[in-house]
């Protein structure tokens, strides 16, 4: 075994592969290209995955948003086509009857896209989304507080008329460099004191509209705008380890029972399941990774076949040499080992060159992205070290397979027949 790794063995390998160097380079290129394609495809998939998942950055993905719709089935003497509203009591009922609830946040809303000017400060006015929320909403839709603070339970319990405004609202209503903390804005004619500013992050949080929102305590919102105990919609987050997708049917059942809705009426309650959408994206990128491995392996396989063919030719060209070695007492294992070692060596060298070339291309792409800024839905393409290790294992196994048939042919050569070969 040790003779396989002696200096003479390596000298023989280098001499055999350099005898016809142009043929060796062409053969090695097949493996190089296969590994290069595999690395680049995986890096591109990772870059796309990073870009898409950055939209969910910091967001509690195990969350569902739920609102009311028109009831589509008559039930217990009540007609279809009627509307209903969530009540503040529904929040506690969900917490009491559905397990593994982390947050159940009631929300109310004023304004909307294309609405009339509903917020005024001095001579400046604008149309903004205004939300009545509980403090937990910052855990479900994270934002960076850029000055001041977010609403807290003191604000909720005392129904304080305070507001947290987005950086876009600040730009619209305040002069450059002016500090909004402690100033007042009028929302639909009601004065609110500004206690903080924020910048949204995740799920498109860099867009202009996401920075033009205002958050006020749920209780003061209800009091100021005559909402009573009504709730416009809810943001519901399950505990880690529990899927909101699996729990939402229980949530719907609680609401249907409290509002006399037919148990089979699936249209009465609208919802957007963020966890379900995120799971689909996870599944998509897993499929893309499988495709990348499949395509890269097929390309690599063509290179391995090329190496196997070349090794067959090499063995044919060295028939007389092999015969002499056999006549001098070389064992079948030493002959087989020499051919396998040459095959593995050529495969690994060409494969490592492919990995290096792929790494250079990835480095160049990242350098361009760093210089020009991130591209929408694509950022930081990279390949995990485990992928490189997997590629090395594939190369070693591939080298063994590529050299196996030529090695078997080599040990079948009889010394007498080989010595007759011209």
TrEMBL record:
Localization per Swiss-Prot or TrEMBL? Cell membrane
By its UniProt entry, which InterPro entries does this protein fall under? ABC3_permease_C, MacB_PCD, Macrolide_Exporter_MacB
Q: Which residues cross the membrane?
A: 21-44, 290-315, 344-365, 385-405
Q: Where is the ABC3 transporter permease C-terminal domain?
A: 294-414
Cellular component GO terms held in the UniProt record:
plasma membrane
Q: What are this entry's molecular-function GO terms?
A: ATP binding; transmembrane transporter activity
Metal-binding among keywords: no
Grouped into one coarse class, the protein's main location is membrane
Which Pfam families has this protein been placed in? FtsX, MacB_PCD
MacB-like periplasmic core domain boundaries: 24-251
UniProtKB keywords: ATP-binding, Cell membrane, Membrane, Nucleotide-binding, Transmembrane, Transmembrane helix
Query: How is this protein situated with respect to the membrane?
Result: Multi-pass membrane protein
Family per record: Belongs to the ABC-4 integral membrane protein family.
Protein name, per record: Multidrug ABC transporter ATP-binding protein
């Amino acid at each position: 075994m040790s003779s396989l790794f002696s200096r003479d063995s390596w000298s023989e390998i280098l001499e055999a592969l350099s005898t016809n160097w142009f043929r060796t380079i062409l053969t090695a290129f097949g493996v190089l290209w296969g590994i290069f394609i595999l690395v680049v495809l995986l890096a591109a998939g990772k870059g796309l995955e990073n870009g898409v998942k950055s939209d969910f950055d910091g967001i509690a993905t195990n969350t569902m948003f739920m609102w009311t719709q028109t009831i589509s089935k008559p039930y217990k003497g009540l007609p279809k086509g009627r509307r209903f509203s969530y009540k503040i009591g529904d929040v506690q009922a969900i917490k009491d009857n559905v397990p593994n609830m982390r947050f159940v946040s009631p929300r109310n809303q004023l304004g909307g896209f294309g609405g009339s000017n509903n917020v005024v400060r001095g001579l400046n006015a604008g149309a903004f989304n205004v939300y009545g929320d509980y403090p937990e909403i910052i855990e479900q839709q994270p934002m960076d507080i850029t000055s001041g603070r977010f609403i807290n339970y003191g604000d909720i319990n005392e129904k304080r008329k305070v507001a947290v405004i987005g950086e876009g609202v600040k730009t619209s209503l305040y002069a450059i460099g002016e500090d909004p903390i402690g100033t007042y804005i009028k929302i639909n004619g009601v004065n609110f004191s500004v206690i903080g500013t924020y910048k949204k992050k995740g799920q498109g949080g860099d867009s202009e509209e996401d920075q033009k929102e205002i958050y006020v305590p749920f209780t003061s919102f209800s009091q100021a705008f005559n909402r009573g105990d009504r709730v416009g919609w809810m943001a519901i987050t399950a505990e880690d380890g529990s899927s909101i997708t699996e729990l939402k049917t229980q949530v719907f059942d609680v609401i249907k029972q409290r509002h006399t809705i037919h148990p089979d009426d699936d249209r009465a309650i609208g919802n957007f399941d963020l966890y379900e959408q995120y799971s689909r994206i996870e599944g998509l990128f897993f499929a893309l990774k499988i495709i990348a491995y499949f395509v890269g392996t097929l390309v690599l396989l063509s290179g391995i076949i090329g190496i196997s063919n070349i090794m067959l030719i090499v063995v044919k060209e060295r028939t007389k040499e092999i015969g002499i070695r056999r006549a001098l007492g070389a064992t079948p294992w030493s002959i087989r080992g020499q051919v396998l070692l040459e095959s593995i060596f050529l495969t690994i060298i060409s494969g490592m060159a492919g990995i290096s070339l792929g790494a250079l291309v990835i480095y160049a792409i990242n350098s361009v992205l760093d210089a020009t800024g991130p591209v929408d839905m694509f950022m930081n393409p990279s390949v995990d070290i485990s992928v490189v290790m997997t590629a090395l294992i594939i190369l070693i196994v591939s080298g063994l397979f590529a050299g196996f048939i030529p090695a078997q042919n080599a040990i079948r050569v009889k010394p007498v027949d080989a010595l007759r070969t011209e």
